[in-house]
Amino acid sequence: MHNVVTATTNPAKIQAILAAFELIYGEGSCHIDAISVDSGVPEQPNGNEETRAGARNRVENARAMRPDADFWVAIEAGIDEGSTFSWVVIENAERRGEARSATLPLPEVILEKVREGEALGPVMSHYTGIDKIGRKEGAIGVFTKGTLTRSSVYHQAVVLALSPFHNAIYGQ
């Protein structure tokens, strides 16, 4: 059984991480230990590099808090060039895997509020009336009519970030 520390307590992120690990390693193969850690970046990261840095920082902080885990996983959502996206960073004792998620272009009315310094989640909650939307379907669920959700998009990125851990060619 793999002990997987998630550098988040967000249910949408935890669900994606668990589903991806079980897809790759088998159902019931993982124990999730969800912890809250600091990202070292603003609540609403702006740009590719700041968002990736937030995910990397979360993994580093999770490792410091739970050094005996098998895997440490972080998902950091950000805004880049008018779209929302995330970085997934996964580490174990030997390597790191990283993947960027799909992106969702955001409406200008939402982007204006984000540019003014508000985080996407609260802005989306205001416009949709969905409390704590970032812990649920997110903007992705709203704007894709539920076809995709925050968790489903994260899931893909977690599967991609896991590639170096179960494909021997990455170690060559």
From TrEMBL:
Reaction(s) catalysed by this chain, per the record, are: XTP + H2O = XDP + phosphate + H(+); ITP + H2O = IDP + phosphate + H(+)
| Source species, domain of life | Bacteria
Q: What are the recorded GO MF terms, alphabetically?
A: hydrolase activity
Indicate yes or no for the key word Amino-acid biosynthesis: no
Which protein family is it in?
A: Belongs to the YjjX NTPase family.
UniProt cross-references to NCBIfam families, sorted A to Z: inosine/xanthosine triphosphatase, PRK05074.1
What protein name does the entry list?
Inosine/xanthosine triphosphatase
What species was this sequence derived from?
Pseudocitrobacter cyperus
